[in-house]
User: Which sequence fits this backbone?
């Protein structure tokens, strides 16, 4: 599961492996307050932290499978692989049928209307990926979850989570989601498309739950 928080002092050190030590994701590390109750400076700080992590993760092809296992690869930035028109689902790997892409896009649209959170899906086969170019294409902000499906990392489910989402959703949810639907046994048996669809529906269910100490306790 790709989920990083980098100190601001390391934000520009994207070529340094030592600057990319992952922070273990645990349930106890989750803030319990609702994002609406946090002062602006807290959201701003956390947003910068996640944005640095997002940039580092895409620029270096960094992904985490599970907790604390990193695999750094050569950076990719190929805007030519982006679609000509805006879409919330980009499948450069060909994992999804046209019908599946349409259904996922509709579900993602409903999530945004109902919750205000933005889910974006990129299916790729590294190094064939637009990489960092998706950040501007999707206008990624602190209310965005970027879901990168890539089997080359072992666990196919990888996430970059915005600061406002992080305040409401337990970090343990993402590792449990990756463990259930992203493990190699699951996607090799059922297919990459099945993993992607299951993950999107689980995220949809989680984001719709009221924020609280027990929300998203089950991966559906």
Assistant:
């Amino acid at each position: 599961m790709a989920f990083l928080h980098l100190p601001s002092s390391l934000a520009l050190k994207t070529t340094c492996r030592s600057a990319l030590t992952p922070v273990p994701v645990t349930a106890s590390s989750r803030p319990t307050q609702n994002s609406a109750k946090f002062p602006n400076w807290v959201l701003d700080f956390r947003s910068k932290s996640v944005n640095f992590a997002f940039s580092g993760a895409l620029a270096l092809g960094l992904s985490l499978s599970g907790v604390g296992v990193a695999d750094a690869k050569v950076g990719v930035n190929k805007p030519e692989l982006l679609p000509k028109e805006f879409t919330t689902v980009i499948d450069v790997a060909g994992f999804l049928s046209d019908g599946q892409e349409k259904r996922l896009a509709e579900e993602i649209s409903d999530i945004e209307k109902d919750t205000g959170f933005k889910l974006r899906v990129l299916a790729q086969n590294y190094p064939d990926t637009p990489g960092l170019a998706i950040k501007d294409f999707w206008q990624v902000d602190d209310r965005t979850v970027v879901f990168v499906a890539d089997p080359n990392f072992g666990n196919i489910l990888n996430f970059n989570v915005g600061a406002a989402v992080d305040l409401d959703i337990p970090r343990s949810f993402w590792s449990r989601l990756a463990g259930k639907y992203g493990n190699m046994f699951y996607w090799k048996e059922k297919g990459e498309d099945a993993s992607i669809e299951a993950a999107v529906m689980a995220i949809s269910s989680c984001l719709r739950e009221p924020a609280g100490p027990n929300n998203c306790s089950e991966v559906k």
About this structure: Residues 40-59 form the longest helix (20 residues).
